[in-house]
Design brief:
Two copies of one chain form a homodimer.
Chain A lengths: L5 E4 L8 H14 L7 H10 L1 H9 L8 H15 L7 H8 L11 H9 L4 E5 L3 H11 L7 E2 H4 L6 H10 L7 E5 L2 H9 L3 E5 L20 E3 L2 H7 L4
Parallel strand pairs in A: 1-2, 1-4, 2-3, 4-5, 5-6
Helix pairs in contact in A: 1-2, 2-4, 6-11
């Protein structure tokens, strides 16, 4: 493999357990207001609106806006679908920020620390900069910079998102490796010329619902970031 | 003072001793090739091309390009002016990267660490993302994100550079404080609605050549980042 000079990371699902975290946050926040909620079903429904919302931007029908704004649009749809249209504005705002309070999978914080001894690290996520910064603070990560959708002003899997992340670090596409738990993300990164590493997250969408192996060719596969660190020669 | 939620930093001169570092790097690099150089004069001459080069972008005469590219254009001018037009391409490339190897003033690394216990921190510099990331690695800084010219795709003192940095952290302009050693930078930040803190760097351009006090109204003044940390209630 040619020398890798930069590691780029998908975040939702790959580094953080969005499903478990959103299920917990939504159930707790609405529960405190006397609303009994199936948090897991709510998390899945909210995330189901993710790709359609970004497609409005990718297609050019909507100008670029932060993922926080798309999450809020999606939240309003899901609350209506759950018969919760009466939930007030302050609660909606607070609930939308649950995406800034996601917990990392257990291997991620030690894995990133090991990887950073050898490589510059940046998220290449569809999440906005403040969302990425808040997740890093919460989970104790040290990014060299925050790349991704807000820098590119478009959403993955559009090539510009991967290419602008590599370019921000003065890297050619083949010098950057995209690390993700989703074959579709890695296929798009590879098509843009990047190296790829698949991380298995078999419980991403809830117990037993997640990709266990890449369905596309990748340069590396691992079950955890700590394993990836070992494979890339980081102590 | 209304609550400050974000600290933004000028970098060249405010956090790093560009003059001393460039003087040292240029004299060493060209010296190793048998060229005797007045490093301090060379550093000053190189920096003298900084504002005119950015003005080409700010005015719209040139499309946005990274500061690394402007530094390289300026280097070619200064080498010619110093009668060093024969310096080869590899040396020029290496010399241009001297801007990625600048040393912090002694108070900066401990000061930023204290400030980060209470505030998110980001550079709001005209330097590009990779340059900011390299300076952070070299000097042991932990930015929450890298804002500034490359994110805004324009150069300070244009308002968009300050405003896009605050917006990336979901802050209103008045919730962000710009920290800089230059009155002109702080005047522009204040005009964009930001709070301002002046840091005295009396030796920025060489011994005794630097601003010792702000020549414009500012919210705070300090002689070091460690003093600023105390003034902002950081232990």
């Amino acid at each position: 493999m040619p020398e890798v000079k930069l590691l780029l990371f998908d975040v939702f699902g790959t580094l953080v357990d969005w499903h478990g975290s959103i299920a917990r946050e939504a159930a707790a926040l609405l529960g405190a207001r006397g609303i009994a909620l199936d948090g897991a079903a709510f998390a899945t429904a909210w995330r189901d609106q993710y790709q359609p919302a970004m497609e409005e931007v990718r297609s050019g029908r909507l100008p670029f806006c932060k993922l926080d704004a798309l999450h809020r649009r999606n939240l309003d749809i899901v609350l209506r679908d759950f018969g919760l249209d009466y939930v007030d504005e302050a609660t909606r705002r607070e609930l939308n920020l649950a995406w800034h309070r996601l917990d990392a999978w257990p291997d991620v914080t030690p894995g990133l620390a090991r990887l950073r001894t050898k490589f510059p690290l940046a998220p290449c996520s569809n999440g906005n900069i403040s969302l990425m910064a808040d997740l890093a603070r919460r989970n104790g990560w040290h990014w060299d910079a925050i790349a991704g959708a807000e820098l590119a002003r478009d959403y993955k899997p559009k090539p510009i998102v991967y290419l602008s992340a590599a370019a921000a670090f003065d890297c050619a596409p083949h010098e950057a490796m995209m690390v993700a738990a989703h074959s579709s993300d890695l296929a798009a990164a590879a098509a843009a010329g990047l190296r790829t590493a698949f991380i298995a997250r078999p419980d991403e969408h809830g117990p037993g619902i997640g990709e266990t192996a890449a369905s596309v060719p990748v340069d590396l596969s691992a079950d955890a970031l700590t394993e990836l660190a070992g494979r890339l020669g980081c102590r």
